[in-house]
């Protein structure tokens, strides 16, 4: 059987300030493509077109334009930061292509030209604060990379904190990729917040974690048990190059963690180990890029074509098997319903997951239905504050 070739763009920064995330995402996408192309029952095969914008948001738009016009790609799996997504968005809208976006983000966006696999705030930040506020206190210090993700997650965190009678002690930003964080540590030491919310990305996140670990060693008042660092964009890949002391004690919310003990994840990791060997943690960036390609392949098999209009229709009308379990997409927003997990990192850089029975949380990208009552009992849909932009 002659199989139809379908070019697919993989548009991730594999060099630059957040290169580790991009390399893991490309590896995940290529792993899914290898599975698709190795299936003799597929009438098609994916032909990956890999481009590296090197962390330049402007290059994302240029490369997206080129891969659509010159290579015939109608599907782009890629973009990490919200800044880069915003650059690609008008390109895919103009050409009638689809962007498959698979990283956590700040919401407040919908487009017919995007399939949103990554979590939005009611699927990551709200569950995180629901866990952290009643246990550690209501006086956070917020640090973030100076772009859309840092700004918007910080803003929503402030609204949640104030709604429960708390106070954000400070909100500070550093340029994307900057490793100059000593001034942040000095202010944190002086203000003694109840916890630190990190919205930092890539090298900035790693530099801050190293510096905060030094503060923890120097002053027991900043132990992980007393004043933890918390985040909703931290995964095993961000901790990989840190010391055991720096790796441990951070609280995260994530949709996928390597130690997720479910039947779907066990089967997925067994397939991966058979193909690439074991001993290497599987991360969220890897899994979500894998999922984007896998969902696309299942939709192409159903539709009999890679036409973006038909693929969009299929994607929003059925459920898809994935390493995190079956998922479906809201036909109004194209966002996936996801199960958020809370975990704490250990000295090995893995995460202990507190509860694997979390229900699926339907995406609410504009936070018009998501509720955070003004009391420690936490996030509960149905009554209370509406966090709106």
TrEMBL record:
<dbReference type="Pfam" id="PF13433">
    <property type="entry name" value="Peripla_BP_5"/>
</dbReference>
<dbReference type="InterPro" id="IPR028082">
    <property type="entry name" value="Peripla_BP_I"/>
</dbReference>
<dbReference type="InterPro" id="IPR039570">
    <property type="entry name" value="AmiC_PBP1"/>
</dbReference>
<dbReference type="GO" id="GO:0033218">
    <property type="term" value="F:amide binding"/>
</dbReference>
<protein>
    <submittedName>
        <fullName>Branched-chain amino acid transport system substrate-binding protein</fullName>
    </submittedName>
</protein>
């Amino acid at each position: 059987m002659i199989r139809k070739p379908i070019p697919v763009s993989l548009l991730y920064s594999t060099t630059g300030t957040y290169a580790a995330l991009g390399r893991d995402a490309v590896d995940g996408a290529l792993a899914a493509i290898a599975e698709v192309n190795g299936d003799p029952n597929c009438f098609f095969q994916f032909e990956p077109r890999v481009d590296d914008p090197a962390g330049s948001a402007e290059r994302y738009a240029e490369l997206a334009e080129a891969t659509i016009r010159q290579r015939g790609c109608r599907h782009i799996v890629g973009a990490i930061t919200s800044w880069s997504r915003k650059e690609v968005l008008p390109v895919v809208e103009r050409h009638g292509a689809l962007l498959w976006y698979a990283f956590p983000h700040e919401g407040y966006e919908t487009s017919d030209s995007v399939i949103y696999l990554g979590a939005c705030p009611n699927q990551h930040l709200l569950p995180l604060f629901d866990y952290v506020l009643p246990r550690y206190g209501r006086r956070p210090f917020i640090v973030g990379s100076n772009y859309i993700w840092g700004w918007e997650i910080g803003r929503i965190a402030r609204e949640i904190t104030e709604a429960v009678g708390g106070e954000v002690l400070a909100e500070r930003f550093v340029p994307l990729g900057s490793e100059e964080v000593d001034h942040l540590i000095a202010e944190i030491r002086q203000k003694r917040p109840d916890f630190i919310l990190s919205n930092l990305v890539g090298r900035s996140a790693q530099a801050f974690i190293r510096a905060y670990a030094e503060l923890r060693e120097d002053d027991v008042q900043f132990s992980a048990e007393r004043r933890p660092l918390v985040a909703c964009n931290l995964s095993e890949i961000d901790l990989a190059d840190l010391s055991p002391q720096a790796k441990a004690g951070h609280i995260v919310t994530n949709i996928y963690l390597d130690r997720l003990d479910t039947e779907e994840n066990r089967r997925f990791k067994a397939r991966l180990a058979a193909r690439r060997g074991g001993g290497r943690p599987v991360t969220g960036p890897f899994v979500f890029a894998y999922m984007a390609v896998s969902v696309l392949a299942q939709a192409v098999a159903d539709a009999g074509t890679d036409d973006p209009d038909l693929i969009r229709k299929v994607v929003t009308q059925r459920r898809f098997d994935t390493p995190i379990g079956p998922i479906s997409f809201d036909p109004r927003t194209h966002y996936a319903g996801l199960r958020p997990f809370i975990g704490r990192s250990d000295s090995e850089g893995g995460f202990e997951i507190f509860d694997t029975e979390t229900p699926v949380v339907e995406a609410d990208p504009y936070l018009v239905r998501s509720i955070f009552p003004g009391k420690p009992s936490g996030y509960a849909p149905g009554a209370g504050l509406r966090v709106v932009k």
